[in-house]
Amino acid sequence: MKRNIKIFAYSIFLIFATNIFNTFNLYANLDEDYLNKIKNDEVIIRLTNGDILKCQILDLGFEKGQLTSISVQTKIGKTKIYLSEITEILPWSSYNRNSHRIFLLPTAEPIENNHFIGNVELLMLYGGFGISKYFSFTAGQSIVPAIRPDQQITLLNAKATVYQEYWDSMYGHISLALGGNMVMINSYNKISHIYGAVSFTTEKSIFTASLYSKIGNKDFYEVNLGNNLYTFPFENGSFGIALGIDSRFSTTNDTHFIGELWNSDITKPSNSGILLGFRIGNSNVSADFGLAIFTTPYFIPFTSFIWTPF
């Protein structure tokens, strides 16, 4: 128990301390080569006073041979911004670095370079990484203080983004992915799925639909919570569906509505749940808050804190 408490405290400290450290290194990408590379593209500029601009970089400004400012085109006209006023510049297409997931639901989008670590429900360490534009891997391990190590939950997920098509007539694209996951409820209860997912990405939103099937050799599972033993059914071969949405609010770039609808067996509508909440954050950290509602009924608050350092 003491070991789990130490791991939990260390993980929270790591997420926030490393983000503070990372903030002091945001100026590394404000060099001439990087700015010329994204010149004339849509970008997000985060200023030192907290303001965010969506604009296009038109030209670079020099004083005595040193790069000191940029000229940008915004919706209300052209303006000049000094580099000393900027903390970060990102291409608009990569601003949402959590596009590979809603909350728990994987989208069809790849992780790519948006490698992350975090903490889910304050009781599970969680992380993921991508390999090129195709392969994404995530893993999690619960650290519940009152539960024995052999009763902790382990989560593994692997996903391949097999197809992406960008639209010429409007901003956005469609992605298709195939994947599999395994949840170890404890050392002797393993639940595995294979799934397919399709995601539609627009300027403000990501819509995802997923179809998954349980595979394995058990129809009933036992879980120990403290001194209590619970048994629940989950038949092999059952098909489930999941729908998800991540939509940015019109008035801000840093606040999103997130929602998920799950059904573990399409022949049993009662095996359903819905998650509703919001996400706040930037290109380095994000925090999710909301409520999960199940048909039993149960109401469970959910949280997630994610750090994307690179």
Task: Work out the count of structural domains.
Answer: 2
The CATH class label of the largest domain is Mainly Beta
Physical arrangement of strands within the biggest beta sheet: 6-7-8-9-10-11-12-15-16-17-18-19
Query: Helix count, per DSSP?
Result: 2
The CATH homologous superfamily of the largest domain is termed monomeric porin ompg
Describe the structure.
With about 300 residues, the protein is mainly beta. The protein has 2 domains: about 30-95, SH3 type barrels (Roll); about 95-305, Porin (Beta Barrel), CATH 2.40.160.40. Helix content is about 10%, strand content about 55%. The protein is built from 2 helices and 19 strands. The strands form 3 sheets. It has a 12-stranded antiparallel barrel with strand order 6-7-8-9-10-11-12-15-16-17-18-19. A hairpin with a 3-residue loop joins strand 6 (about 115-120) and strand 7 (about 125-130). The longest helix is centred in the first third of the chain and has 22 residues, at about 1-25. It is elongated and about 75 Å long. The relative contact order is 0.13.
